[in-house]
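Co-fold these.
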Amino acid sequence: MIRRLLLLCLCLPWAAAAQMPASRVVSITFDDLPYASVPSENNAQLRSMTTRLLQHLQVDQVPAVGFVNESKLYRDGILDAERVDLLRSWIQAGFELGNHTYSHPSLNRAPLDAFEADVLRGEAVTRALMQSEGRSLRWFRHPYLHLGKTPDVRAAFQDFLAAHGYTVAPVTVNNSEWVFAVAYSRAQAQGDQDAARRIGEAYIPYMEAEFARSEQLALDLFGRAIPHVVVLHANSLNADHFGALAAMLKQRGYRFISLDAALRDSAYAMQPGFSGIEGESWLDRWARHAGLRPMQQPAVPGFVTQWAGPAAYHGY
Ligand SMILES: [Zn+2]
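Predicted complex below.
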């Protein structure tokens, strides 16, 4: 009996280590602030969504960055102070804000000069807010992860970002969380709480499959785990379910780290190669450039796509 206990004691740490590499770390980012999919865009609901999401992030000590589309701060062409306050709440809760353009155009579609003008238009409020809290605005996230269709556009835009003090925020775990979020907010708007519950429950295993895919791709490419960066959105789905998502990630052995810390890894010194495939993560682009063929992304369950409706095919 004693021998068996001893064996157990010796073996368990090894078993645990095999399942949970200590090096699993992820930086969490949220796009489309102050809000993406919500059942209603009235300011009281947006405040509630923001408060609940920020509480999750604080409880789980997630050093998140939120990327802003300032066009959503305006109602009937007038800057809405309550919506600006939503952004202020992110900063005052200790989180950093970045620029995600003013109106969410695609660098694969818009002319470069128009796109750059939209980037500058998109920083007016956010830069002032960050400065008033003693912070500087320094991150940029491409809408749709569209990096530009030609090497010339990419290089020119990179120069533009550098000249304006921006660092690009890459993504390694791209995903269809936004499809779940559209479905979830539509179910809630229609008062179908049972459908909303089922969509929320399907969200977590779907994201776990996305993380498993990215972990494997990093292993195939680098022969090791890398610090991941995941893109999510500021929506009701995460306001209600980020706690469950964080629990799943912790269960997989993840710690939450800042975007700065993730980008210190040498993997991020690689440029995202041009693949011709729109909206791919940096990891997929690196892998394709190295001759690997990334596996398909996990499927979104049919009932979720149905609830999302036509929006599911447009992308965020
Ligand atoms: Zn976006």
